DNA sequence: ACGTTCCACTTGCATTTTGCAAGTATCTCT
DNA sequence: AGAGATACTTGCAAAATGCAAGTGGAACGT
């Protein structure tokens, strides 16, 4: 399996990279991600679980019964790839 | 829609980026892509059609009844993003 | 202490996408 | 005309995705 295939195995699923992008600047809560992305709630829950298992993000317990999702070092390492893809998407066809 | 979402709208489907990666160095034929990637043939046909419509690649008629698929300028512009993602995939967890 | 509210999910089911295997079309060469 | 090679298409099963409603637990007000 190529390096690219290995990467896509982790962040290639629908919504995965968009979720990571949201957290690049600061940790986000579940509701924030849902509102900002418009992602179906069951999919969001699934992605967060997968990305946590993959070591891309961690759950931070917050006060009340809320938690924040924050990128790990490995998650933050996606910044360059996300920016590169974003630049490409911004260019006109 | 964010720039990243726009990009994923085009190359976010399964196999799409892997197909583009294969053509970064040189044009490829249908059978080559199928063998090298192990992608289901109907999916490959669908992706090639989508990527052609999106202006990422073009069909080049070859002799016999074969054709080659080659990246356009827009397709080649994906190189940086693909390399960035590949690098990330190559790093250990 | 009890009900209400908020937040983070889960669950059930329809729709869409993906995958597998087999079949079709066209060209070339003999 | 027949055979082989290449590029697909087609039919159907499996898996992923999406939608809407429901669940569970902690905090807050009374």
Can you walk through the features of this model?
With 93 residues, the first copy, chain A, is α+β, with helices and mostly antiparallel strands. In chain A, 57% of the residues lie in helices and 13% in strands. Chain A is built from six helices and three strands, in the order ααβααββαα. Chain A has a three-stranded antiparallel beta sheet with strand order 1-3-2. Chains A and B meet through α1, α2 and α6 of A and α1, α2 and α6 of B. The structure holds a DNA duplex (30 and 30 nucleotides).
| Assembly status | homodimer
Task: Write down how many β-strands of chain A occur, each being a DSSP E stretch of 2 or more residues.
Answer: 3
Class per helix and strand makeup of chain A: alpha+beta
Strand content of chain A: 5-15%
Lateral strand order in the biggest sheet of chain A? 1-3-2
Query: How would you characterize the largest beta sheet of chain A?
Result: 3 strands, antiparallel
The CATH superfamily of chain A is: Winged helix-like DNA-binding domain superfamily/Winged helix DNA-binding domain
Name the biggest interface. A-B, 32 and 32 residues
The CATH topology of chain A: Arc Repressor Mutant, subunit A
* Termini separation of chain A: 31 Å
Provide the helix percentage of chain A.
55-70%
SSE string of chain A, helix = H, strand = E? HHEHHEEHH
What general form of chain A does the structure show? globular
Just give the CATH class of chain A: Mainly Alpha
Mean pLDDT of chain A: 95
The number of helical elements of chain A comes to 6
Number of domains of chain A: 1
Q: What is the alpha-carbon Rg of chain A in Å?
A: 14 Å
CATH architecture of chain A: Orthogonal Bundle
| Residue runs with pLDDT of under 50 for 5 or more positions of chain A | none
């Amino acid at each position: 399996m190529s390096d690219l295939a290995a990467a896509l195995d982790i962040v290639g699923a629908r919504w995965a990279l968009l979720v990571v992008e949201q957290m690049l600047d600061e940790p986000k809560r579940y509701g924030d991600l849902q509102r900002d992305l418009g992602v179906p709630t069951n999919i969001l829950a699934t992605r967060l679980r997968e990305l946590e298992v993959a070591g891309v993000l961690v759950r931070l317990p917050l006060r009340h019964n809320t938690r924040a999702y924050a990128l790990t070092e490995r998650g933050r390492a996606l910044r360059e790839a996300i920016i590169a893809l974003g630049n490409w998407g911004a260019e006109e066809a």
